[in-house]
Amino acid sequence: MADLEYTGWQNRITSELIQRGKHMRKVNLKEMVEEAWSSPKGKFGGASKEISVALGRDPSSTDLKARHPFDVELCRIPPGKIHSPYHAHSAQWEFYHVISGTGQVRHAEGTTPIEPGDAFLFEPGQPHQLINNGAADLVLYVVADNPIGESCYYPDSDKWLVLSPERKVIRPDGSEALDYHSGEE
Fold this sequence. Notes:
With 185 residues, this protein is α+β, with helices and mostly antiparallel strands. 15% of the residues lie in helices and 35% in strands. The strands form three sheets. Strands 1-2-3-10-5-8 form a six-stranded antiparallel sheet. A five-stranded antiparallel sheet has the order 4-11-12-13-14, with no helix packed on it.
């Protein structure tokens, strides 16, 4: 009798899970619009396709079902550009997979060349920066685990990007609010 009760409970849970996810979510990257960015003086720049957002991710939600447990983007960095200032995440892991182009990654031990097929990972606290020093666009997938309460530290300019309770860039002593690119270009 206990086995039958367990099977009934298991079937009820399975049925509830199936009802929640009524359809598969799918996007085609060829149909997605690329979102470009650039810093005021042009040192930093690139473009991305926010795949997770296109699949329904709500980045501002604290509900992991709506927020998604990971974030995926296709990133393109033009020749001569740097993706973002040198930074370390407080809680976020990031996985990268190079699709095309060449470049280098700046990290705590120096720089490492990257090329198609390379995959690499940065855990929380490991500073990193993507640089396209090649002749063609550097294209890569970025997968992040998307933790709530994430912040970033920028060693070159000694500032923090704090995302909660509101998005702002500050000095460690909290003495001044800053622009994101302050001290970087």
